[in-house]
């Protein structure tokens, strides 16, 4: 078993842990033509955008937090609700068909997903073309800064909610059917079975995924947002991931971009450890057991 796991461990170390050494450029005035070793040390100067509150950084941070909070409230519960609905279906054939339809968008790239939404809801999209032909009001969704957050939230739900139900369905499949029968014998209907059997059974999984989501709260999807920044503008769409790209790769401020990425990773780690500690206080195992 250990030999089988060695290739995976080697890949993990090579592509995830070794690159962490590159974070040293956060403390250097790095330039590609100099290399990491030749770049001069600048200490904590690259972190001034964080400490001094650079307007572009603050805008990216605020947008990131708003989008993360909205998606945490609106996106996270959707897979749970879908899994409960799928689990309640009595016909196995209907359940498999519904699962296949819900899983399909996950395998599409963000380029395709964004293109579909643009072709459906854009100024020259299907709806607006049909609305013009029938003298109906047009929808200004694509490129509207005020509707950018609802737009990307709906895209995330459409693309990934179905795929995320797999974990919850797997947890539900482990529930002893005799528990449902016991509730039914006591006069409990489907809602009682759901409340007293299903939800307690998947609660550890919900807590675990919520903790992991909190650790990723400052990452809201680079590709999805980057593909739609042009029509909307940076004021409404700039997030930390795109800020790192625009400031580092496009702007050439590699050290500053690395510093922001390092701070983002540090905050994510703190959030995971803190959320896990809270889970222990409520009697849940969380990501790891209590020390």
Automatic annotation (TrEMBL):
> Where would I find the ABC transmembrane type-1 domain in this sequence?
61-275
Pfam families documented for this protein: BPD_transp_1
Q: Which UniProt keywords apply?
A: Cell membrane, Membrane, Transmembrane, Transmembrane helix, Transport
Q: Where in the cell is it found?
A: Cell membrane
Task: Note the topology in the membrane.
Answer: Multi-pass membrane protein
> Which top-rank group of organisms is this from?
Bacteria
> What CDD domains does UniProt report for this protein, alphabetically?
TM_PBP2
Give the principal location in a single coarse category.
membrane
In terms of InterPro entries, this protein maps to: MetI-like, MetI-like_sf, UgpAE/MalFG_permease
Transmembrane domains' residue ranges: 65-86, 107-127, 147-172, 254-275
Q: State the similarity comment.
A: Belongs to the binding-protein-dependent transport system permease family.
Q: What is this protein called?
A: Sugar ABC transporter permease
């Amino acid at each position: 078993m250990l030999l089988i796991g060695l290739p995976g461990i080697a890949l993990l170390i090579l592509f995830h842990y070794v690159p962490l050494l590159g974070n040293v450029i956060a403390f250097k005035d790095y330039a590609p033509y100099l290399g990491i070793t030749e770049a001069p040390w600048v200490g904590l100067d690259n972190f001034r955008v964080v400490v001094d509150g650079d307007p572009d950084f603050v805008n990216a941070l605020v947008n990131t937090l708003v989008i993360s909070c909205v998606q945490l409230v609106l996106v996270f519960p959707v897979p749970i609700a879908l899994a409960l609905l799928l689990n309640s279906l009595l016909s196995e054939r209907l359940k498999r068909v519904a699962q296949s339809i819900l899983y399909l968008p996950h395998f599409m790239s963000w380029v395709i997903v964004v293109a579909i939404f643009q072709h459906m809801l854009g100024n020259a999209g299907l709806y607006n073309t049909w609305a013009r032909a029938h003298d109906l009001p047009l929808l200004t969704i694509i490129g509207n800064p005020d509707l950018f957050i609802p737009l990307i939230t709906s895209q995330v739900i459409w693309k990934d909610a179905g795929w995320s139900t797999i974990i919850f369905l797997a947890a539900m499949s482990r529930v002893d059917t005799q528990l449902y029968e016991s509730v039914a014998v006591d006069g409990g209907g489907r809602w009682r079975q759901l409340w007293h059997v299903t939800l307690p059974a998947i609660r550890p999984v919900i807590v675990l995924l919520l903790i992991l989501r909190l650790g990723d709260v400052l990452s809201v999807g680079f590709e999805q947002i980057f593909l739609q920044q042009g029509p909307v503008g940076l004021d409404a769409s700039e997030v930390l991931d795109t800020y790192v790209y625009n400031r580092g790769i496009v702007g050439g401020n590699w050290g500053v971009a690395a510093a922001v990425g390092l701070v983002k990773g540090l905050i994510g780690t703190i959030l995971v450890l803190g959320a896990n500690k809270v889970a222990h206080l409520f009697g849940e195992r969380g990501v790891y057991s209590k020390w």
